[in-house]
Amino acid sequence: EAGVTQFPSHSVIEKGQTVTLRCDPISGHDNLYWYRRVMGKEIKFLLHFVKESKQDESGMPNNRFLAERTGGTYSTLKVQPAELEDSGVYFCASSYGTSGRQETQYFGPGTRLLVL
Amino acid sequence: AQSVAQPEDQVNVAEGNPLTVKCTYSVSGNPYLFWYVQYPNRGLQFLLKYITGDNLVKGSYGFEAEFNKSQTSFHLKKPSALVSDSALYFCAVRVSYNFNKFYFGSGTKLNVKP
What is the DSSP letter of A100? Predict the structure, then answer.
């Protein structure tokens, strides 16, 4: 069974440009999450989708970040326009459910974003 | 506010010796606790979790962790370290009422030397 995949693995852009990150969850997982780790600090929650709906987007830093999950399969996270402080590693995770054995989140390898 | 602390940025241990990676948490509500490991250029891999039941939880690769409610800790342990255990370890907590939002610590780099 394929794990969570993310694309691209690395992205280097200039301040003011737009970047779109993609996440493909494990097949059959309705729950999809985005997290971010900035410069050696803790991994912080950004948002949670259940199928195509945003369940919790309390961690989104500002309106320059837009996450979508049309059709309830893969998700994209767009940063427009990118700022220097957006640099970090963006992780995607998925889970089958949110309780009991189904709540374990499985993570992708991350996208390393560097904004110059 | 919910938070997780991993007080050590780095832990060094000799191969064959026992290892401990510390984690403490602060949450309102019942905690569900997790450990993940990240190898270089890889994603986070699930190691083990505590939801309820026995305080000592056994996970992948010979790791175990002990939930201590009075000390609000969930330290990761292994009786005999391997060089291949060298990686970045993250502790995470979820509170029971908050769907599936995880709070992570800042990570501890484990170095196991031959």
Answer: G
